[in-house]
Amino acid sequence: MAIRNIRTQEDEILRKKSKKVSEIDERVLTLIEDMKETMYKANGVGLAAVQVGILKRLVVVDIGEGPIVLINPEIIERKGEVLGYEGCLSVPNEQAKVRRPKYVKVKAMNENGEQVILEGEDFLARAFCHEIDHLDGILYIDKIEM
Fold this sequence. Notes:
The protein is an alpha+beta fold.
């Protein structure tokens, strides 16, 4: 496992759309472990592969309940709305208010290649949305509300 460099907002790669993961091989599994280690070292609650320079539709999230791996995630349901503060490892030392769904349902694969459907409310919903946005080249700073 290795700590990877987290790209910051000036890096053009963060604005690119990530590609689907076609197979879960040793390289993808190594990337997942590196991403977890990198996220924890940076005291983050989520990290998308693009943030470490890899254009793959892969995110890891841990809001304090253990790591969640989402491969090729898509939001299939949203409910409610909440305005709250967000930060980002790619936009260091800043926070701002962003409107997100209060609840989301996400379809993805886990690291074993199994399809999973996960539900998130409040902070977990915010984390899922934030990380999935990264996969489409969207940063939270694009959604700031005053």
